[in-house]
Amino acid sequence: MTSANQEPAKVVFNGISKSFGRKGESLRVLEDINLEVQDGEFICLLGPSGCGKSTLLNIVAGFEESDAGSVTIDGEIVAGPNPQRVFVFQEYGIFPWASVWDNVALGLRHLSEQERAKIVEATISMVGLSGFEAAYPMELSGGMKQRVEVARALAVSPDVIYMDEPFGALDSLTRLGMRAEIVRIWQQEKKTILFVTHDVDESIQLADRIVVLTERPGRIADIVEVGLEHPRDLGSGEYGAIKNRLYDLLGVAHTI
Amino acid sequence: MTWVFIAMIVLAAAGVKLQDSLRDSLRPLVAPLCVAMIGVGLWGLAVIWTGSRVFPGPLQTCLGLAELIESERLWGDIIASLFRVTWGFFLAASVGIPLGLVVGWNMRVFTAMNPIIQGLRPISPIAWIPIAILWFGIGDGAGIFLIFLSAFFPIAVGTTAAVRNISLVHQRSAENFGLAGLELFRRVVFPAAMPQIITSLRIALGVAWLVIVAAEMVGMDSGLGYLINDARNAGSRYDLVVATMVVIGMIGIVLDLLIRQLERFDEVRWGYEKR
After folding, report:
1. Of A37, B53, B202, B234, which has the most beta carbons under 10 Å away?
2. Cβ contact (<8 Å) for A93 and B178?
3. Between B172, B266, B271, which is nearest A63 by CB?
């Protein structure tokens, strides 16, 4: 997974910095972020609350602009959002006024009726929501809503998927289930995924590499390779060792 | 008398069977009915107590209502009022909703238009009555114009606010999936604003129904407002005045019930249940 002697990186962060103005003072949130992400890689951006990891993801996705530096994807500088790179929001980005079917079909407007139906049906079934096509989001549980949003993203067969703490609003059991699901889908589809989280376990369970950010202003403290095969044994010694390493990097105690 | 007796037995028998479900469905009506009965009782007592010869009690009001219904004049006045409200309201909605969508979405249009809208909004539609009569004469035209004014501002301002309240997450979703132009309005801006637009329609219809009565009292020669004035002028028939007020109230409730049906569509229900 190292960048040397391989094809060029999919996503490249070139010295990204960002400040926000607040009450006349400028607040530095991101400082000189450099990172290369390979095609098909699952990257977690891990850091404490307020370290700027969501801001970083919004910059990569083209929703916000950086003050310095740039992001290139496939060699092209990101200038704005792009339908080929889909963002999965923490607080349900799906449309509550549209049925599950219409939500998933959102990115397929240019296709013929038949092609669209085929893809929508297949994607809904992939996330396990068959039978709920006509339902509206308010009739679904939090976990199901997030599945709809994942399906909406997968339906367009995107190059890159950005996920900003997508399971943060779910209860812990549903969250575990959703992680297993996202790993399964990722293994099947081999998309590049950039996943923001403040949950140490979540990052070890999901990522190929974990990018650990410091407290504000966010800088890259280190990049940790997970190197465990899926399905991952949460009780194994390697798992525990990675966890301790991450706690060290985040400056948190190992014991309570 | 026998028929009444038989009917009572049948009802009682049915009542035993339906008792449980009926009791459950009627229970919420008990308290408001009690309050209403106490109110009507106090009203009747007050009239007797003060010995008023002009102000009607509940019974006289009911008789007045019966007289109005029989005279057939009531229906003509109801239709006249509803006609003006319907036209004025639909014109206001068909101008106010599109305008509100554009003003709410486009910052430059908002900067240009909002001060004017906010400046005209506090002027009571009643204050426009002389101008309405000047422009349209006594009749439906002036009434429709005044209702248009009454309903337009709540609808335009409500729609503008609705669009400006669209969540960032939904805006970014739309941007991410490349929605633009008319498609953006059709798929995101309009449906996202819809629940709040319906609320503003409801408010606007309420205001319109308030204003039409005042407008008809001053500047028109038909309608429920005119009926109130006419009943007073034609020999202080306050029983008819109060009876007409009751009719106005009941029609107002029906109008509100009708427009609330819009809140039940699947596409907007999300906006009313837990936000």
Report:
1. A37
2. no
3. B172
Tell me if A197 is assigned to some domain: no
What is d(CA A63, CA B50) in angstroms, rounded to the nearest whole number?
A: 72
CATH architecture of B64-264: Orthogonal Bundle (1.10)
Hey, are the CB atoms on A138 and B269 less than 8 Å from each other? yes
Question: Is the pLDDT reported for residue A5 higher than 60?
Answer: no
Chain A hits for B172, CB-CB cut-off 8 Å, are 63, 81, 87, 89, 93
Structure confidence at residue B4 (pLDDT): 58
Per the CB < 8 Å rule, is A86 touching B178?
no
A65 touches B at CB < 8 Å: no
Band the pLDDT of A25: cuts 50, 70, 90: confident
Q: Is residue A191 part of a domain?
A: no
* Statement: residue B12 has pLDDT above 80: no
Residue in B closest to A158 by C-alpha: B177
Residues of B in contact with A93 (CB under 8 A): 169-170, 172-173
Are A140 and A148 a contacting pair, CB within 8 Å? yes
Q: What is the 3-state secondary structure (H, E, C) of chain B?
A: CHHHHHHHHHHHHHHHHHHHHHHHHHHHHHHHHHHHHHHHHHHHHHHHHHCCCCCCCHHHHHHHHHHHHHHCHHHHHHHHHHHHHHHHHHHHHHHHHHHHHHHHHCHHHHHHHHHHHHHHCCCCHHHHHHHHHHHHCCCHHHHHHHHHHHHHHHHHHHHHHHHHCCCHHHHHHHHHCCCCHHHHHHHHHHHHHHHHHHHHHHHHHHHHHHHHHHHHHHHCCCCHHHHHHHHHHCCCCHHHHHHHHHHHHHHHHHHHHHHHHHHHCCCCHHHCCCC
Q: What are the domain boundaries of chain B?
A: 64-264
Residue A127 domain boundaries: 94-157
Q: For residue A48, tell me if it sits in a domain.
A: no
**Strands of A25-37's sheet in order across:** A25-37, A11-22, A68-73, A76-77
User: Does A109 fall in a domain?
Assistant: yes
Q: Say how far apart CA B139 and CA B218 lie, in whole Å.
A: 11
pLDDT of residue A76: 93
B169, B172, B177 ranked by CB distance to A83: nearest? B177
Q: Which of B172, B173, B198 to mutate to test the interface with A (most CBs of A within 10 A)?
A: B173
Give me the residue from B178, B183, B192 closest to A97, CB to CB: B192
Q: Quick one: pLDDT at residue B24?
A: 78
Q: Is the CB of residue A247 less than 8 Å away from at least one CB of chain B?
A: no
Smallest CA–CA distance, residue A43 to chain B, in Å, is: 21
Q: What is the mean pLDDT of residues B52-76?
A: 91
Give the count of domains, chain A: 1
> What's the pLDDT score for residue B51?
87
Nearest to B169 among A93, A99, A109 (CB): A93
